Q: What sequence folds into this?
């Protein structure tokens, strides 16, 4: 069975500081990993994905994530946080050997403090 | 880029009535569409997966007679909440993909969501 863990419900960071939002996963096959961002009363916006290739994935709005197979992690990072980055972030995984639906983590609310 | 349009963005209905939510892929053919439900401050829970021209596959615990899903074309899927009750109030989000996630495509595109309030 596939699962995703986002251990932090809330992350606070000062504007201009680096940010990290953590995600670990469990799948039986090769993982397809995604990060999405959600603003209030809106759908999900795609940030980045890892399917194969380089472990460091660069995405939208300056975000990046590193796929670590040994630690089964896919943490989201940004070198310098903006107040506008404040939102709800979801990590999601699809089992490459299984059904093509995504399984989501519980979400992490990021607050960037001016 | 791939765009999914979801309508309405919000709806208020009386208890006992039915509500239809539409999800359209505007610039690609959506082989598969997914319907999610999101409770306040919680994650997205997959309700069902629909493939064009076939019956939807519902997740365990989701009432198929209450949440009717139709995927009649490669660009349109609808979710109808029948005989809605206050406990059905939630945020519903659709997602579409042209097929298995792969190279050269963002994989899954999400609609902007529908806030359903049943009074």
A:
């Amino acid at each position: 069975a596939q699962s995703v863990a986002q251990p932090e419900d809330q992350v606070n960071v000062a504007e201009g500081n680096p940010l990290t939002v953590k995600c670990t996963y469990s799948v039986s096959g090769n993982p397809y990993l995604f990060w999405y961002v959600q603003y209030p009363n809106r759908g999900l916006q795609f940030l980045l994905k890892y399917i194969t290739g380089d472990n460091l994935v660069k995405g939208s709005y300056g975000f990046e994530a590193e796929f670590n197979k040994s630690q089964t992690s896919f943490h989201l990072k940004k070198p310098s946080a903006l107040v506008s980055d404040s939102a709800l972030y979801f990590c999601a995984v699809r089992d490459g050997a299984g059904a093509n639906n995504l399984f989501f983590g519980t979400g992490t609310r990021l607050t960037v403090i001016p | 880029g791939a765009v999914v349009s979801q309508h309405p963005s919000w709806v208020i209905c009386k208890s006992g009535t039915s509500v239809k939510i539409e999800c359209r892929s505007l610039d690609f053919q959506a082989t598969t569409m997914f319907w999610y439900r999101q409770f306040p401050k919680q994650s997205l829970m997959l309700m069902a997966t629909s493939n064009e021209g076939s019956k939807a596959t519902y997740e365990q615990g989701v009432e198929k007679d209450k949440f009717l899903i139709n995927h009649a074309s490669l660009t349109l899927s609808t979710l109808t909440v029948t005989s809605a009750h206050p406990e059905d109030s939630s945020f519903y989000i659709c997602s579409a993909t042209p097929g298995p996630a792969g190279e050269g495509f963002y994989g899954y595109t999400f609609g902007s969501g529908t806030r359903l309030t049943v009074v």
